[in-house]
Design goal:
3 domains; alpha+beta; HisK_dim/P_sf; transferase; about 425 residues; EC 2.7.13.3; Heat Shock Protein 90; Helix Hairpins; signal
Length: about 425
């Protein structure tokens, strides 16, 4: 049973039933005890009313002899001789001790009270079975109202539970009526304190989803726009190749087409990297040696760096710099940093990857001797497809966006500054 309504009703009705049974049991026992005391009091009063009389008056004897009367009055002399019995009975109790006593005659048990007065023993007795029957009837009559009230109380509990769960029903109806594109916050008016945090959390989730979806829509729009230009260029280059009449023009067109394909390939790769980085689910971090990773990246990028006559150095890799994270994502981060630095650094320039262990983490920095980015424009440098000067390099404007996405997944925030080489420094602190 997974319904809150049914579980709440079952718990409340069970508690109500348990409370009613407990009250009924306590009331039943209390009424039984009170009725027994009352019957004992009646026995005492009847016996005491006869103690001062010399004999039983005829009219009194006639009343005591009534067969409908449950009581039996017996009088003995002090030597044990029976003087009087209110009526004949097949199983009368014998003479008992003075005061209250239970007399077992074999066939039944009698409750008796005996008193000594004027040389006589006066005993009044009543069958125990009749006493218990009368007491039980009185107790059941006192408990009966609880049984009568249990039905309307159960109906009241049902109505109250349904009434107080109405906000959840309205919330569910509101969610069912929405389409997949609706990210408007849920109404919070009239919600109980226990439900308000749930709705607030849902509204926060909807706001995050709206932001994410808006980012994805903007990403797709930007990607479509950015892909249109290289694809158009490839089409034009292919047409130029087809129109080429001599070997020199054909070779030049082929070279231009190859460069265009390489740029388009890199753009698509970076788009896929960014999409994977932003959509990746959190994974269990594994120890990653940044020094070894940096050497791999430099080895992979070395042909590009060498082709431009640039100098590339690695500092701080003498000792392992281990951080928890995802190796593939950190490889993409380092590769984009080195690739960006190389693309925006003129031929013959200097690049440097630095690793500096710090308390609780490792500082990663990539410096270049390129034109850098003015402080006023650094805030936009992490935007997708933003390029300060599209003529300075053939970049796609996605490198730093990928770096920021991967860094944030690893609890870091990239910072831009001025490099000691004179260009741009990109640094971030990865927690160890």
């Amino acid at each position: 049973m997974s319904s809150i309504r049914l579980r709440l009703l079952a718990a409340l009705l069970a508690a109500l039933a348990a409370a009613a049974l407990a009250m009924a049991a306590l009331t039943y026992r209390a009424v039984l005890a009170e009725t027994e005391s009352l019957f004992d009091y009646q026995l005492q009063q009847m016996a005491l009313s006869l103690r001062d009389q010399g004999q039983v008056a005829p009219e009194q004897a006639e009343a005591l002899a009534d067969t409908q009367l449950d009581f039996v009055v017996q009088i003995w002399s002090v030597d044990g001789r029976a003087i009087y019995a209110s009526r004949r009975h097949t199983d009368l109790p014998g003479r008992a001790a003075l005061g209250l006593a239970d007399v077992d005659t074999g066939a039944q048990t009698w409750r008796s009270y005996a008193v000594l007065a004027q040389g006589r023993v006066i005993q009044v007795a009543q069958p125990q079975a009749i006493r218990r029957q009368l007491a039980a009837g009185a107790a059941l009559r006192s408990v009966a109202p609880l049984g009568v009230l249990s039905v309307p109380l159960a109906a009241l509990v049902w109505w109250l539970v349904s009434h107080f769960l109405q906000p959840l029903a309205r919330l569910a109806a509101e969610l069912r009526q929405r389409d997949a594109a609706s990210m408007a916050p849920l109404p919070t008016d009239g919600l109980p304190d226990e439900t308000a945090p749930l709705v607030a959390a849902l509204n926060a989730l909807l706001a995050r989803l709206d932001t994410t979806l808006a980012g994805q829509r903007a990403f797709l729009a930007d990607a479509a726009h950015e892909l249109r230009s290289p694809l158009t260029a490839l089409k034009l280059q292919l047409q130029a190749l087809q129109r080429s009449t001599d070997e020199a023009a054909r070779a030049q067109a082929q070279a231009a087409l190859g460069e265009g394909i390489a740029r388009a390939q890199r753009l698509v790769e970076q788009l896929l990297q960014l999409a994977r980085s932003e959509a990746a689910s959190p994974t269990e971090p594994q120890p990653v040696d940044l020094a070894a990773l940096a050497r791999e990246v430099i080895a992979a990028q070395w042909p590009l760096v060498q082709a431009k006559g640039q100098q590339l150095a690695l500092e701080g890799d003498e000792a392992p710099c281990v951080v928890p994270g995802e190796r593939t994502a950190l490889y993409a981060l380092l590769r984009n940093l080195v690739d960006n630095a190389s693309r925006y650094t003129p031929p013959g320039g200097r690049l440097c990857v630095r690793l500096a262990p710090e308390p609780g983490g490792v500082r990663l920095s990539v410096d270049d001797s390129g034109p850098g980015i003015p402080p006023a424009e650094r805030a936009r440098a992490f935007d997708r497809f933003w390029r300060r000067d599209s003529g300075a390099a053939d970049g796609s404007g996605l490198g730093l966006a990928i770096v920021q996405s991967v860094a944030r997944r690893h609890g870091a925030e990239p910072e831009l500054g001025t490099s000691p080489e004179g260009g741009l420094r990109v640094s971030l602190r990865l927690p160890a």
